[in-house]
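Chapter review: from sequence to fold.
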Amino acid sequence: MCEELTLRDTTRQIGSSKFPAANDPLGEILHQLRLDGSLYCRSTLFGDWSLAMPVLTGKMMFHIISHGQCWLTIEGEAPQLLKQGSLVLVPHGLGHSLCRDPGLEATPLFEAGIKQVSERYETLQMGEESEGELTELTCGLISFDQFAAKQLIQMLPPLIMLETLAQSKSRWLNASLDLIAAEARQLKPGGETIITHLADILVIQLIRHWLEESPEANQGWLGALRDKHLGIALRAIHHQPQKNWTVDSLARECGMSRSGFSAHFTSLVGNTVKNYLTHWRMNLAYQRLQKKSEPLIILAEEFGYSSEAAFSRAFKRVMGVSPSQIGSSLL
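The token string follows.
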């Protein structure tokens, strides 16, 4: 993955307080997904089979159907037939089932006889070749970081499927799926790294496909990112959270009156400008503190607070715990 920039590095690179409208306003958010391929499993399944996937809070799961077909069922959604070449993402870690037939009783995944090949790679076989048709799956469990990425993932639907693309896109998609399937079967040196990077690309492609095709992607926070005025204000907050932003200064950045900007922001984002700015700063600070313990006065200054006390009060109000409690957990 790309090396992360510090807040100071980012601020130096921007250099100016003016943020022109981006050609790809969601590109930065997709970049910040920084997926961490936690675990991959290649499954070889014969005849009648059914697997129950557990609830995995804070994780995403994806499934690639490399041979045969199966059904996916998830609570509140109609069963979905996944044909060979299908790619599906369960963004919120919801429990779900994969099965040859929806009427079959599901075996919990962790009781199905998974074999660990390495720290990040597992295999599973259910049934024998003589028992019926073959289904091959590659499944992945992915975690993610960054507050912006979490904002985006919260807005995704329970299930995202990709079955058909324009011919120009389907060629590279099919080639990527074939390469993942080949690497999963052969387990050559470096195969896990190849699978991890290709899977990251496929997951981001799935999310991008939803962003391009779904009407819901033009609403709320995502709609605000694409808005020609609010997008500028949001990028200003995201790039320079340490700056002394006010409703007036942000309204000037995006060329709107104070009242018009404030009303439009609240209507689309679902939060006031001041609350959004505070929550953004505190979540960034929380992520920093989770990685390493830092003097609170430094964090206070970097996130636009004149004193450690003011920063600590805002942090506890938003996060529910004091910043010192987060830092002490690392000791």
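Two observations follow directly from the output. Residues 34 and 149 are 8 Å apart (CA to CA). Confidence is low (pLDDT under 50) at residues 1-22.
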